[in-house]
Specification:
Helix content: 40-55%
Largest sheet: none
Strand content: under 5%
InterPro entries: ZC3H15/TMA46_C, Znf_CCCH
Order of helices and strands: HHHHHH
Structural class: mainly alpha
Distance between the termini: 92 Å
Keywords: Metal-binding, Zinc, Zinc-finger
Protein name: C3H1-type domain-containing protein
Number of helices: 6
Oligomer: single chain
Shape: flat
Family: Belongs to the ZC3H15/TMA46 family.
Radius of gyration: 38 Å
Zinc finger (C3H1-type): 1-33
């Protein structure tokens, strides 16, 4: 068997476009004999014999000890409520810290944004902004032609 072929198969490089470095004049075979086991497959088989997943889970569970809380729907809901409350308290604490830093002059550019007021402002349109006239294109054409010296019939 060609050593380049074996190397290519071991590294998963062998495929449609693979060619032997020896070229077409290679005197060795480019095929695996029946029952041949690759090194990478041998390693996988050895790892399988180590420990099954169920055994691993049971070992890890036994290593945790006996003073554990079983997870039920009630314990999970209580845990989730506690975590949400902690997250809310942390956010309030951070907001208060930002306010205090701003008042003390440590932080520049802090501004409290009220989302409800912002949403109301975004929905109201009063028409006081810049409004283009409808004949703006004609006026621009007249100005352009007068600059170039063209005669335009109004």
């Amino acid at each position: 068997i060609c050593k380049f072929f074996l190397d290519a198969v071991e590294r998963s490089k062998y495929g449609w476009f693979w060619s032997c470095p020896n070229g077409s004049s290679c005197i060795y075979r480019h095929a695996l004999p029946p029952g041949f086991v690759l090194k990478k497959d041998r390693k996988k088989e050895e790892k399988k014999d180590d420990i099954s997943l169920e055994d691993l889970i049971e070992r890890e569970r036994a290593a945790l000890g006996s003073k554990l809380t079983k997870v039920t729907l009630e314990t999970f809901i209580a845990w989730k409520k506690r975590k949400l409350k902690e997250k809310k308290d942390a956010a309030l604490k951070e907001e208060e810290k930002k306010r205090n830093d701003f008042k003390a002059g440590k932080q520049i550019g802090y501004r409290e944004i009220e989302l409800d007021a912002l949403a109301l402002e975004a929905q109201e349109v009063d028409g006081t902004g810049t409004v283009a006239t409808e004949d703006r294109l004609k006026a621009a054409e007249v100005n352009h032609s007068s600059i170039n010296g063209d005669v335009v019939n109004p």
